[in-house]
Amino acid sequence: MDFAINSSFNDTKKHWDISIEGEIDIYNSNDFKKELSELIQSNPTDVYVNCEKLEYIDSTGLGALVSILKKVKQYNGDIHLFNLKSNVAKLFKITDLNKVFIIEGEPHE
Amino acid sequence: MSNVNNIPIGEDCIELSLPVNPAYVSAARLTASSIANRMGFNIEDIEDIKAAVSEACTYLIKRNLHLGPKMFQIQFNLTTSTLEINLTSQKSEGINNIYDDDSLGIMMIEALMDKIFVADDDVIKISMVKNLP
């Protein structure tokens, strides 16, 4: 399974609304990083990521997210992650990245 | 005709040989998931095993992609109380330190599995064990 990113700019709240579907691993994490990077370059604002349909993310995908967060922080923005599945939330927790990203809401099955 | 349903699994060994190509890491995850499910691991443990296998594959692939052996091996050793998973590949010559730091992947395996052993010599080997609850 590959991944898909659906994005739209929220004109009212002036941030990116993104949803991620599928699995991110060493096979596609570079593409994932490139897509997000292009998005924030086109409009440098906060990013809200709906992870409801994110089935899995590996260390290379987490590394890609951290790399994007560094760029977002450069313009004083933030990345908000919400609706994480419990297995994905666990990966953020064991890597301590739950303290780096703003994670909202309780994990779900 | 004999009944072929529900034959219990025993102390079996399942071996998988995969090309050193990131495209097949998902195949390793699916195989691990299927075996762990048959053994009776709960959903959380199955997710842990899938993620650990994925990180171990990534560790081996990063060391060999475009450079060395074309295949690597994954062995699943099943017992009544544990699943032991061994990943091995030959080490490509002269490729030390060409890969990114991947301590994050190993740290994740340590958190997800009950035991892990990594040997990075002539043969790269990652052994890890998950105990049945």
Features of the shown structure:
heterodimer; A: 109 residues; five-stranded mixed sheet; 5 strands; B: 133 residues; alpha+beta; 3 helices; globular
Structural write-up:
The complex is a heterodimer of chains A (109) and B (133). Chain A is α/β, with parallel strands linked by helices. Chain A is built from three helices and five strands. In chain A, α2 (59-74) links the parallel β3 (47-57) and β4 (79-82). In chain A, α1 (29-42) packs parallel to α2. Chain B is of the alpha+beta class and 133 residues long. Helices cover 35% and strands 29% of the residues of chain B. In chain B, α2 packs antiparallel against α3. The termini of chain B are far apart. In chain B, 35% of the residues are buried. The mean pLDDT of chain B is 89. The chains are: A alpha/beta (109), B alpha+beta (133). Chains A and B meet through α2 and α3 of A and α1, α2 and α3 of B.
Gist?
The complex is a heterodimer of chains A (109) and B (133). Chain A has 109 residues and is an alpha/beta fold.
Question: Secondary-structure map with pairings?
Answer:
The complex is a heterodimer of chains A (109) and B (133).
Chain A: E1 3-10, E2 15-24, H1 29-42, E3 47-57, H2 59-74, E4 79-82, H3 86-94, E5 102-104
Parallel strand pairs in A: 2-3, 3-4, 4-5
Antiparallel strand pairs in A: 1-2
Chain B: E1 13-19, H1 25-39, H2 43-64, E2 71-78, E3 82-90, H3 103-112, E4 115-120, E5 123-131
Antiparallel strand pairs in B: 1-2, 2-3, 3-5, 4-5
